[in-house]
Design goal:
Largest sheet: 5 strands, parallel
Radius of gyration: 17 Å
Helix content: 40-55%
Bound molecules: BIS(adenosine)-5'-pentaphosphate, magnesium ion
Length: 216
């Protein structure tokens, strides 16, 4: 099964994708995470992407589609791929169709996380992750069980994203409205779109997604 999680910054795409990965053995394909890894490693792609990401704008369609194509060839996507933060433009949507078709695969669902944008700034500015294993937390909605210690790996080292400040978040949201939201009608016309209430708590959102994937 191959699905897209679609929604604005902070909608919960990454949160739900990593749950699906843990629960169903599907692979989370997050272009944001891949680009941040490239920035950290100082690769040519990372060097090109850094300033664009820091400004909250979109990296070029060719770069992200290239990294998604390579990622789709890895064995862990055999049980299914969860596209998190990709596609983000009509051109990327078209490229994804081609990448899947070349591999004899197809899209099953496009799951839209429907959210109230005003609440998302709080979600994003409160977000932090374990610097060692990447587990996601939130200052208000998901604190580690023991203060200052990662629940999963026990690390005491946490980090925040450079683009998680209010000004950049506003640009990211404007980019979503202008370039990403318009791809929904394309998928709607193909009967692929399902909607979940992204404002519900994380478990409830997960249950709604599970019901769709299980055909209930
Ligand atoms: P990317 O990394 O994809 O960021 P984004 O789309 O802005 O989305 P976020 O990761 O901020 O939010 P999310 O929906 O994953 O929310 P999360 O689950 O973390 O992209 C970053 C940048 O990379 C882009 O701006 C662009 O420059 C570039 N880029 C990436 N892909 C690209 C592409 N395809 N094309 C071009 N450029 C690209 O949740 C947020 C917080 O809320 C967390 O703290 C979480 O704990 C909490 N939370 C989650 N769900 C709930 C809930 N139900 N209730 C309460 N809190 C919740
Ligand atoms: Mg994310």
């Amino acid at each position: 099964m191959n699905i897209i999680l679609l929604g604005p910054p902070g909608a919960g795409k990454g949160t739900q994708a990593s749950r699906l990965e843990a629960e169903r053995g599907m692979a989370q394909l997050s272009t944001g995470d891949m680009l941040r890894a490239a920035v950290k490693a100082g690769t040519p792609t990372g060097i090109k992407a850094k300033a664009v990401m820091d400004a909250g704008e979109l990296v070029s369609d060719d770069i992200v589609s290239g990294i998604i194509g390579e990622r789709l060839d890895m064995a862990d996507t055999a049980k299914g791929a969860i596209f998190d933060g990709y596609p983000r433009t009509a051109a990327q949507a078209e490229l994804l169709d081609a990448l899947l078709a070349e591999r004899g695969r197809k899209l099953d669902y496009v799951i839209e996380l429907v959210v109230d944008e005003d609440a998302l700034v709080e979600r994003i500015t409160g977000r932090f992750t374990c610097a060692n294993c990447g587990t996601g937390y939130h200052d208000k909605f998901k604190l580690p069980k023991v203060e200052g210690t990662c629940d999963v790996c026990g690390s005491h080292d946490f980090k925040r994203r450079p683009d998680d400040n209010e000004e950049t978040v506003r640009t990211r949201m404007a980019e979503y409205r202008a370039k990403t939201a318009p791809i929904l009608p394309l998928y709607e016309a193909r009967g692929l779109v399902r909607r979940v209430d992204g404002m519900a708590d994380m478990d409830e959102v997960g249950a709604q997604i599970a019901a769709i994937l299980d055909g209930q």
